[in-house]
Structure formats: structure tokens, C-alpha cells
Amino acid sequence: MNKKTKKYAANLLKIGITVVGLYLVLREVQPAVIIHTLSEAKLGWVFVGFLLVNISMALRAYRWSTLLRGVGATIKLKRLIALYYVGSFFNMFLLSGIGGDVVRILEAAREVPGNIATGTVLLDRFTGLLMLFVMALFALPFRPDNFPTYLVWLVVIGAVGGMVFLLLLMQENFLRWLGHWLPGPLKTEGDTPIARLLDAVAGCGWRAVGGALVISLLFNLLLALLWKTSSMALGLTVPYLYFVLVVPILAVLILIPSVGGLGPREMMAPLLFAAAGVLPETAVTLSFLVFLTDRLTGIMGAPIYLWTTIQDGRQGKRHAKNN
Questions:
Q1: How far is 89 from 99, CA to CA, in rounded Å?
Q2: What H or E segment, with its residue span, contains residue 261?
Q3: Fewer CB within 10 Å, N side or C side of the chain?
Q4: What is the pLDDT of residues 193-229, one digit of tens each?
Q5: 11-19 contacts: CB < 8 A, separation 24 or more?
Q6: Is the Cβ–Cβ distance between 90 and 300 less than 8 Å?
Q7: How buried is 22 (Cβ within 10 angstroms: 0-12 exposed, 13-18 middle, 19+ buried)?
Q8: What angle do CA 220, 221, 225 make, to 5 degrees?
């Protein structure tokens, strides 16, 4: 199977997961109720959610900047903000919740070494997910009595497992020893891609990683607030701490191969919000509303990408003339 065929197969798989997920959801709930509820959403709270998503773009870009500085690399903050918008835009077309990360890596690799671009983007993503689960862990004592036990264990495993993995990730020598027996390019010793990636991640240092975790805390508070304001747009009274509990699981569902996480998240929404007394149709509507708010922000990445492409072209022509 060649690369082109594999790409088509992967895209078909993602589309298939989304279609099947939405089919299973819409089979259990009434689409007419979802559409009606969305049409009745309070636009003021929707706009607040839209602002929160945009603020989070700048916050996440600053987190990425912190990691880059830790490894001794520099990209202007406004450039990183632009890349976050561009990444969000491409998430809509690369049929994935992480396709935008690939675009960010490719664009950043034009200004810093590829291993640094890749390592900092992956660490940027991981610190965000880790802090989501850590926050949820501290919110567990305030969970409702009917909060599912399996979700409690998911939060505990995600938080503890994530912290252990981060400790191992920053122990470069241990990982090199652990993976020295792996074959070919997977080796963690020498000048292999994995070894260079580990150098970049460990090279960020604990100070930068600690800063990224603090910024992730602020970002995740905004993320939970996005879900809270979206719920208020639908007239719900779900406590803010409840969103702190369930948003980590919703965030992980975005990583499932699909069209921007659409499908898997909507399948889980009724289960996740049942303990808060939210009806299945309303839970699915809430998930759709957050998805649409996020994608509305992503559309702004199109003109930003077009403008930066034009600017890069002009700079290339000036450079060619000067030489």
C-alpha cells in the first residue's frame, strides 16, 4: 500500500468514525429537538464563549513560547498566535483534532530545527492534557453522588499516569537506556529522529515545563468556562466544577481519528452529563454548540494563513533580489 492509498484509507476511517458516531447519536435523540435548542441559544453567552476561545489562542501560544525559550529557541509571540489560528483552521480539513499540530510543526520548522518544533508542540499539547486531568483530580471530592465510578477511575489514571509519564519524559538518560534496544530509527541513542526529539523535549528543562503547566492551568480554567458559558446559552445550570470533571474526557475524545472529534464526543456527551441531570438531547446540543464555537474561531485562521503566505512570498522575493 503506497502513501497516497494509506492517506485515503486513513481519511475514510476518520470520516467513517464520525458518520457512525453521529448516526448512533441521532438514532437515540431527536434531531429536531437539537436544531430547535440551538436556534434558541442565547447569543450573548455564545459570543462570550467565542471570546474565550480567542483568548485561549493567545494563552496557548504563550505556553508554546515558554517551551521554545526553555530549549533556547525563539519565535515571535504574534507568529505563534497566528500559527495557532492556522492550526485550528486546518483541523477542519485534515479530519483530525490534532491535524493542526502537524501544520504548526511544519510552519515552526521553517524558523527552528525540526526536532525542536516537533518536541515543543508535542510537549505543549501534553502539558495541556495533563493539567486537565490534574484539575479534575482535585475536583473529584466535589462530584455528585451519582457520578459514574468508571469516570472517577479515568480521571485518577489520567492524572497519575500523566504525571509519571512526564517525570520519565524529562529523564532523558533513563529513556535513552530504556529504548537503546529498539530497532533502527526507533532507537533512543545516537542521531536517530527519536533521540533528537528526546533531546528537544528534555532540553526544555523543568523551569519551562513548570511554566507551561501553570499556563495550562489558566487555559484549562478558560476551557471549562467555555463549556459553562455554552451551557448557560442553552439555559442550563450545571455547576462550573462539573465541567472541570468531565472536560478532560471530552478533550481526549478529540484525539480519536474523526472530523475534528465530531461523533465520538457527541456519543459520550449524554453519559458524561447524565449525573448533572442534563437530558441526552441537550447534552448533544451542548457538544455541538462548543464544536461550532470552536470552528467559528478556526475560520479566522484562513485569512491569517493567506496573509502570512503572501508576506513570506514577498520576503522571499526581497531576499532573492538582495542576493
A1: 10
A2: none
A3: C
A4: 777 788 888 889 899 999 999 999 999 999 999 999 9
A5: 11/95, 13/257, 14/95, 14/96, 14/257, 14/258, 14/259, 15/95, 15/259, 17/256, 17/257, 17/258, 17/263, 17/264, 18/258, 18/259, 18/262, 18/263, 19/263
A6: no
A7: buried
A8: 110
22 Cβ contact partners less than 8 Å away, ≥ 6 residues apart? 262, 263, 266
Phi/psi for 254 (5° steps) reads -65, -25
- C-alpha cell belonging to residue 158: 489520567
Contacts of 268 (CB under 8 A, 6+ apart): 249, 250, 253
Q: Nearest-CA neighbor of 115 among 208, 225, 200? A: 200
Rounded Cα–Cα distance for residues 32 and 173 (Å): 57
Residue 142, pLDDT above cutoff 80: yes
Which residue type sits at 151?
L
Query: What is the phi-psi region of residue 192: left when phi exceeds 0, alpha when psi lies from -120 to 50, beta otherwise?
Result: beta
The whole-angstrom separation of Cα 235 and Cα 250 is 21
Q: Please tell me what DSSP assigns to residue 97.
A: S
pLDDT digits over 268-298, tens only?
A: 899 999 999 999 999 999 999 998 998 888 8
Alpha helices, H only, 98-234: 99-108, 114-139, 149-169, 172-178, 193-203, 205-233
How far are the Cα atoms of 29, 68, 169, 202 from residue 71, in angstroms, in the given order? 49, 5, 15, 8
**Max alpha carbon distance in the chain (Å)?**
71
Separation of alpha carbons 225 and 53, rounded Å: 10
The model's pTM is 0.86
List the chain domain ranges: 10-322
Q: Rounded distance, CA 322 to CA 244, Å? A: 54
**Around 28, how many Cα atoms within 13 Å sit in the side-chain half-sphere?**
17
